[in-house]
Structure formats: structure tokens, C-alpha cells
Automatic annotation (TrEMBL):
GO CC, one annotated term: peroxisomal matrix
Pathway, per record: Lipid metabolism; fatty acid beta-oxidation
Superkingdom: Eukaryota
Pfam families the record matches: ACBP (PF00887), ECH_1 (PF00378)
Phylogenetic placement of the source organism: Eukaryota, Metazoa, Chordata, Craniata, Vertebrata
Stated role: Able to isomerize both 3-cis and 3-trans double bonds into the 2-trans form in a range of enoyl-CoA species. Has a preference for 3-trans substrates.
Keyword Nucleus: no
Enzyme Commission number(s): 5.3.3.8
Family: In the C-terminal section; belongs to the enoyl-CoA hydratase/isomerase family.
Name of protein: Enoyl-CoA delta isomerase 2
Natural source organism: Dipodomys ordii (Ord's kangaroo rat)
Region (Disordered): 109-133
Length: 386
């Protein structure tokens, strides 16, 4: 990999672009035609996607067609127009092309034949394929959100971040009592799909970093605000963001096969998921440093000893024991559980949102650094067998 060594900067950026060519079939942005098709699909939706989604669609449409919101803010009593203005204005200076792509992705997550994760009928045992990469089911008072890309070790694509946001929003309002996140296959999740960084829009890598930071902030905010008990069923190794998010869960059950790895420095990146705050709080600054700065990988038992994991189960009985326990918990009075969660978490929320915002801003800069680009080029080169 001669092109990733030595003094970096422009040569490294062009190296990244070279590697990106190998991924182009998956990386083309939405065309005007895709956008127009998506607008038509919205009119054909069988179910009302709900006000939150409609506001998102409105905002993305305006941003994609007119650019950043520059109209005067409606008065406080003009509720509908003010909500629309707020949604549009919240997109800030998101580039038109990114808004167009986000609009197309959002519509596609809503309008696949079986419909998206946000459309799970509460209280039913219903598999919700959507993109198939995130599967949402609801049964026995438990909504289960499952990473479902086992061949890629459940690496999380930008589409999956969006689907998980929608799934969490739906789960917060459905009939279920508790919500579980787990993985299909041998991994819980290998973290951010590193090919996310290869989808280079006309605005260049800067635009990728900017829209990534906006999406990451929204994604982590959903975990901070999630109102019901949120449980991680960690069926195997976890790398990166699925590990850091664990500090925002209410309980973490792990197979003894699971490992917990945050190789941020190796990737030229920094902590996210509020872990720069939750990890030192949970395990003390010294142990948090080993994980978040030096990238020490913990076994499930070590993570349990550090307080990141609630309990470890032998792989042979993991699924049986954990689900039996969760089914029993799901029968507890839902309102009492929600109120207790609010008591435990509410005084931290404001702080967590501020930390999330800061971590995302720092990461946006990191993603443009030579250190980070070098690591991604290395990974993609290995994948592309360069
Ligand atoms: C909106 C943006 C938000 C960004 C938020 C930021 C988050 C930070 C992070 O999450 S950092 C963590 C990033 N993850 C990694 O660095 C892990 C990278 N993957 C690996 O190191 C390895 O794949 C492994 C250790 C997870 C598994 O190794 P193993 O040898 O067992 O398996 P393979 O490498 O052959 O993997 C099988 C295929 O899966 C693809 N793959 C695995 N992980 C990722 C990933 N994170 N991104 C993209 N692709 C991934 C791998 O490339 C193989 O694909 P192939 O069969 O097509 O070659």
C-alpha cells in the first residue's frame, strides 16, 4: 500500500478516491429520477407514516429543492407552519444532494412491500423486512431490533442508522414493554460500515463528514431519549459504535463468546455514543482510557467486571436463558418501569445531549484527517485485495 505511507494530505485523498472506485456500484448518489420516483411513492404509501416522518420528508424535500431554510420563522401560534419551519431549519446547511439522497432512502425505508421498521404492528409476532438489514419483530411484550447483515458481521450502513432511528421511534410508542437490540449470526456488530465513507457526493469528503455527523448525532440522541427499558443482547463480538452505545442501555446481557472492542485510535477516530462520559463513569478513567484510547479489547467477563455488561451467559444456553428472563421482565407493569427509568436517567439527559453534540463535532474533523483516511484506505484495500 505504497500510496498510504509517507506524508499524507492530497495524495491520500486521491488514494481514497481510487479505492472508492471499487465500490462505486454501491455508492452512487440519488439521481433526479430517483428523487422524483420517491416523491411519487410517497403518494402511494398505504399507511400514514405519522407526523414525525412527514415532517422529516417535508424538510428533506425543501432542503433538496430549495436549499437551506431562509424564510421567516412563523409565529408561535401558527403551529403547523412552525413545526415545518423547525424541521427544515434543523437541517442547517445540509447540501441539496445529501438531502435528496436522504429523502430517497427514507421513502424507500417506508415503502418496501412489507414496509419499514416504523410500521411494526405492536403486540404481533411480525417480521418486518424493510431493507432486511434491520429486522424488527414484536412479541410477548418485547420489541426486538436485530442487525441482520451476518455476512458483513452486521456492519452498520447509513441506511441502517436511519432504520434504527425509525425503529426506536416506533418502539417508544408501541405496546411493547421493553426493547431489545441484538445481532443475527456470529457477530453482534462490527460497527460503522467503513464503506459508508466511500459514498462521495459532489460536495466531496467534507460533505460525507458533515452529513455523517448530523446522522450520528440524531442516532445517538434516540438512545439518550429512549423512554422504555432498553436491553442489549450481545450475541457475539462487538466493535466500535455498538460497544460505546452500551453505556446508554439499561441492561446488557452477553454471551461468553462476545468481545468488546473500540479501536478508535487505530482508526484515527475518537469516542462516540457518549462513551467519553459514560465509560469513565462506569469503569473509572483508567479502564476507560485502555478501551477508548489504547483500543484494548475486553472479553465478556472483563466487560462485566468493569460494569459495562450486566451478566454473562454460557454460549450454549445464552439465547434460552436471556429470552426467558426478558419475557418475565416484559410482564412487569410498563408505566412503573418507564417512570423508574426516567428517575434513573433524567438528570443526565441534558448533559448527554451536549456530550453527543461535542463528540460528533470532533468526529466530523477526525473523518477528514489523514490518520482516519489512511485507516479506511487500509481496510478498503484489504477488502479490494489491492
Ligand atoms: C453515520 C456515520 C456514523 C459513524 C459512527 C462511527 C462509528 C465508529 C465505529 O464503529 S469504529 C468501528 C469500525 N469497525 C471496524 O473497524 C471493524 C472492521 N472489520 C474488521 O476488523 C473485521 O472485518 C472483523 C474483525 C470485524 C471480522 O474479521 P473476520 O476476519 O472474521 O471477517 P472479515 O474481515 O472477512 O469480514 C467479513 C466481511 O464483512 C466485512 N466487514 C466486516 N466489518 C466491516 C465494517 N465495519 N465495515 C465494512 N465491512 C465490514 C468484511 O469486509 C468482509 O467483507 P467481504 O467478504 O466483502 O470482504
Amino acid at each position: 500500500m505504497a500510496f498510504v505511507t509517507g506524508r499524507l494530505g492530497r495524495p491520500l485523498r486521491s488514494s481514497l478516491l481510487q479505492v472508492v472506485q471499487l465500490h462505486l456500484s454501491r455508492t452512487m448518489g440519488a439521481s433526479q429520477e430517483d428523487f422524483e420516483n420517491a416523491m411519487n411513492q410517497v403518494k402511494l404509501l398505504k399507511k400514514d407514516p405519522g407526523n414525525e416522518v412527514k415532517l422529516k420528508l417535508y424538510a428533506l424535500y425543501k432542503q433538496a429543492t430549495e436549499g437551506p431554510c431562509s424564510i421567516p420563522k412563523p409565529g408561535v401560534f401558527d403551529f403547523v407552519n412552525k413545526a415545518k419551519w423547525d424541521a427544515w431549519n434543523a437541517l442547517g446547511s445540509l447540501p441539496k444532494e445529501t438531502a435528496r439522497q436522504n429523502y430517497v432512502d427514507l421513502v424507500s425505508s417506508l415503502s418496501s412491500p412489507s414496509e419499514s421498521s416504523s410500521h411494526v404492528e405492536p403486540g404481533t409476532d411480525q417480521k418486518t423486512p424493510g431493507s432486511e438489514d434491520v429486522v424488527v419483530t414484536s412479541e410477548d411484550g418485547i420489541t426486538k431490533i436485530m442487525f441482520n447483515r451476518p455476512a458483513q458481521k452486521n456492519a452498520i450502513t447509513t441506511q441502517m442508522y436511519r432504520e434504527i432511528i425509525l425503529a426506536l421511534e416506533a418502539a417508544s410508542k408501541d405496546n411493547s414493554t421493553i426493547t431489545v437490540i441484538t445481532g443475527n449470526g456470529d457477530y453482534y456488530s462490527s460497527g460503522n460500515d467503513l464503506t459508508n465513507f466511500t459514498k462521495i457526493p459532489p460536495g466531496g469528503i467534507e460533505e460525507v463528514a458533515k452529513s455523517g455527523a448530523v446522522l450520528l448525532r440524531e442516532f445517538v440522541d434516540c438512545f439518550i431519549d429512549f423512554p422504555k427499558p432498553l436491553i442489549a443482547v450481545v450475541n457475539g463480538p462487538a466493535v466500535g459504535i455498538p460497544v460505546t452505545l452500551l453505556g446508554l442501555f439499561d441492561a446488557v446481557y452477553a454471551s461468553d463468546r462476545a468481545t468488546f472492542h473500540t479501536p478508535f485510535s487505530h482508526l484515527g477516530q475518537t469516542a462516540e455514543g457518549c462513551s467519553s462520559y459514560t465509560f469513565p463513569k462506569i469503569m473509572g478513567p483508567a479502564k476507560a482510557t485502555e478501551m477508548l484510547i489504547f483500543g484494548k479489547k475486553l472479553t465478556a467477563r472483563e466487560a462485566c467486571a468493569q460494569g459495562l455488561v450486566t451478566e454473562v451467559f454460557p454460549e450454549s444456553t445464552f439465547q434460552k436463558e436471556v429470552w426467558a428472563r426478558l419475557k418475565a421482565y416484559a410482564k412487569l407493569p410498563p408505566n412503573a418501569m418507564k417512570i423508574s427509568k426516567e428517575l434513573i436517567r433524567s438528570n443526565e439527559k441534558e448533559k448527554l445531549h451536549a456530550i453527543n453534540a461535542e463528540e460528533c463535532t470532533i468526529l466530523q474533523g477526525r473523518w477528514l484527517s489523514d490518520e482516519c483516511m489512511n485507516a479506511i484506505v487500509n481496510f478498503l484495500s484489504r477488502k479490494a485485495k489491492l
